[in-house]
Design brief:
Layout (H helix, E strand, L loop, with lengths): L5 H30 L1 H7 L18 H11 L4 E8 L2 E10 L8 E6 L5 E3 L7 H10 L4 H29 L14 H15 L1 H14 L2 H17 L14 H11 L4 E6 L10 E7 L9 E7 L5 E4 L4 H14 L4 H39 L1
Length: 370
């Protein structure tokens, strides 16, 4: 096989970078506030905190919590209920007109008093806008897949940039910036320096971002394979007319999965359950395992566990990639590191665009002189 020449690597780096740069700039700019989305929500007055109570305050019956939410929208049905890992005293309820309603209502309920705390609105908020621009460009699955393609081009640009870095720096000291050679050469050296310094981070974030764009497809594959096996015994049966107690259902799950906590619950008919089941997704209590879910299916009429199993490897990879992408698993110092590296990557992308535009401007007088 003929080895790829430096000229060919330069062509690959140039065009993979040019095609994805504008979109990568958008993703870096929108990703920066998403690193601090909890803090920004609180700053803008959108954060929700449970009232201070004694630590031993008992939790309210879950059926009472659900009733408090449904009382606000009696015509709607429960879709999901969840708890944030760092806020166990709040249940977040999602209600809609049908199991896949995109115009759902969100309600935060105190887990101890069953009182409604707020009705947060994610859509239209600053963080909501940043999220959609970062995740799908407001274009749904096709937007995600397009951004995934841009992520692939970023990975190619990084790899080709590494290949080109060694011959480019052969006659220069590492990190040398030739300020005396004019602004374009100075920015070229800064572009190369910051690019090689942020190499590992950009590669990790680019690769994990690309994996995250496949989430919908991976979930659908899981639903058509393993989830279909889990609910196969109920095929052809009519959905239950009356749902069983959520308090009893979750008590059965907690007893069966000691050492794990409830992540979220999907109600019958939603994509994460079946017409006959509650889908209870349990998670661990460490920084890593809190991101990994284990699905447990509960008969929605009898509240008995019907099946439970670990997620397949491809969904485990997806779930692990998410905290790596946003750097939200290591506390404030990790967030700061991710933010600084994000800013450095913005400079790399911006300087690359500047160098290309400047090269075109410089080429015109040279061509005219000939």
């Amino acid at each position: 096989m003929t080895p790829i020449t430096v000229r060919r690597w330069a062509w690959i780096h140039k065009w993979s970078s040019l095609v994805c740069t504008v979109f990568m700039l958008l993703l870096c700019l929108t990703g920066l506030p998403l690193i601090y989305h909890h803090e920004i929500d609180h700053l803008l007055g959108n954060g929700i905190e449970a009232p201070q109570m004694p630590h031993a305050t008992p939790k309210a019956d879950l059926d009472t919590v659900i009733a408090a939410g449904k009382a606000l929208y009696p015509g709607k049905m429960m879709m999901y209920m969840s708890q944030e890992a760092d806020e166990p005293n709040i249940w977040n309820l999602t209600l809609g007109d049908n199991p896949t309603d995109e115009g759902y209502k969100s309600i935060a309920v105190d887990a101890r008093t069953a009182k409604v705390l707020a009705q947060p609105s994610f859509e239209g908020s600053f963080i909501g806008v940043m999220f959609h621009l970062h995740v799908d460009l407001y274009a749904g699955l096709w937007g995600k897949l397009f951004l995934g393609l841009m992520g692939l081009l970023l990975v190619i640009a990084i790899i080709s940039g590494v290949v080109l870095y060694a011959p480019f720096m052969r006659k220069l000291d590492f990190g040398e910036v030739r300020r005396e050679r004019g602004p374009r050469v100075k920015w070229l050296d800064l572009h190369n320096l910051l690019g090689i310094v942020t190499l590992t981070w950009a590669l990790v974030v680019g690769a994990t971002g690309m994996i995250n764009t496949w989430a919908d497809l991976l979930l659908k594959y899981w639903q058509f394979t393993e989830m279909a096996e889990m609910i196969a015994p109920y095929k052809g049966q009519s959905p239950p007319a009356v749902l069983g107690s959520m308090q009893k259902s979750l008590a059965n799950v907690v007893a069966a999965e000691p050492g794990m906590k409830i992540g979220f619950v999907a109600f019958p008919g939603t994509p994460f359950a079946s017409p006959h089941h509650y889908g209870v997704f349990m998670r661990g209590d460490t920084a890593l395992t809190s991101r990994l879910y284990k699905p447990v299916l509960i008969d929605a009429q009898t509240t008995a566990i019907t099946d439970r199993r670990a997620l397949p490897w491809y969904l485990t990879v997806l779930l692990i990639s998410q905290p790596l992408h946003f750097g939200d698993y290591g506390g404030g110092w990790m967030q700061l590191l991710w933010a600084l590296l994000d800013v450095a990557t913005i400079i790399v992308l911006g300087s690359g665009l500047y160098l290309w535009l400047k090269r075109g401007v410089n080429a015109k007088p040279a061509g005219a002189a000939q």
